[in-house]
Amino acid sequence: MRRFLTYSLRIRRVEFFVAEIPIPLLPVVLIAETTAPLRSAVFWEGIVLFFLLFNFGDMINCLADRDLDAKYKKHLSEAVYGLGVGVVRAQIGLTVLASLAITGHLAWALDRWSLVPLVVVGILLGAGYSVPPVRLKGRGALHPVTQWTIIFMIPMVLMALIVTPHPPALVLAFCAAYGVLQCGVILINTAEDYPEDRAEGIRTPTVTFGLRPSIALAFVLILAGGTGALGALGAIALERSAPLAALLAFAPLAITIAVSLTVTARLWRAIARGDLDESMVGVRRSAKQVPFWITLNAWGSLAAAATLLWTR
After folding, report:
1. DSSP state of 157
2. What is the mean pLDDT of residues 273-283?
3. Section 248-266 average pLDDT
4. Is residue 134 located within the same domain as residue 240?
5. What count of Cα atoms within 13 Å lies in the side-chain half-sphere of residue 76?
């Protein structure tokens, strides 16, 4: 039983939970005028739905990549085979059923039936990201676009719709920019598997564009997304006539973005000087920091959003 629970948690990638928590909270906190929505039953149903959908995406990715992960992510491959492929498929199926049931209840309770197609599209894209023959993660530029859609935009729009039938444009703009920022950081993690993906013929952005250009793309995404996220937060603050002191809450996010840009720029320069083996050492060293950067960006954004709610 202990091994079953351990492996079941492992394929749900619980190491990312801390960074994922702010994703459903950000649009709600930015839209809410009081803390009342955070205490509602439908909000907590939405939180459960959010994590079920993320569990689905992580589990199906582990299942599809179980042989590819055997070299550098042995713990994931071990978990899939330890549970058994059939058991993993059963967990995925039950997760989908639970997600659809909760979505149906939310749509009925709120009379917002747009939630149903939104979740269905998310599930289909989540499966298509990992599963052949679609396998969007191996479709070059579609890889980060799909990640941006299923990890950030669909879940954040979903949570926004739970709070209001018409999410404000500035909040949606922040969600879009935040997703671009985080996708830029994630792209460095994708580069970690460059030799293996190239050998297997999996056309990730790194394989499609090359190692150095993909790191340059990561820098551009972090810059554009970070600037956009800070700009949207600033516009929301101005719209609400937030006190100037509230802008100090933006500092942690701004610092994290600056550090991410600095580290990415250094990695880009280091790749230019070294051969592939030396370059991959630097990439894998940076990739180990990705969960930390993503977490700081997430919680820095939530701190800024919470400050704006507090000033209201």
Report:
1. H
2. 74
3. 91
4. no
5. 21
